[in-house]
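> example.struct
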């Protein structure tokens, strides 16, 4: 995969994730304090992962074409972790049969 193509795909994935984060944030607040705290903790963790992904993308963009592949694997790992955590969160909230924004 060519560097620019990868960067474009990651930007699209990042925008998609941002939309899903908005959906997560707009969900009704859980009634229990514990559940609200857990959801808030999860939301901020996902935002931190999103920022980490943004940093990885910027690092890959700033790297010369012959050295960017080391950032590709790290960027994909951060993205996969972020998506997995989002799905796990939705499974907890909605139950496994209705889970996942992905």
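> example.seq
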């Amino acid at each position: 995969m060519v560097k620019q193509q990868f960067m474009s795909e990651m930007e699209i994935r990042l925008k998609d994730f941002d939309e899903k984060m908005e959906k997560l944030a707009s969900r009704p607040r859980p009634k229990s304090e514990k559940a609200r705290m857990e959801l808030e903790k999860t939301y901020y963790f996902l935002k931190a992962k999103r920022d980490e992904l943004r940093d990885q993308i910027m690092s890959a963009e700033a790297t010369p074409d012959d050295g960017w592949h080391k950032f590709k694997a790290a960027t994909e790992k951060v993205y996969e972790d972020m998506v997995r955590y989002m799905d796990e969160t939705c499974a907890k909230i909605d139950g496994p049969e209705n889970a996942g924004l992905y």
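> remarks
Residues 56 and 74 are 7 Å apart (CA to CA).
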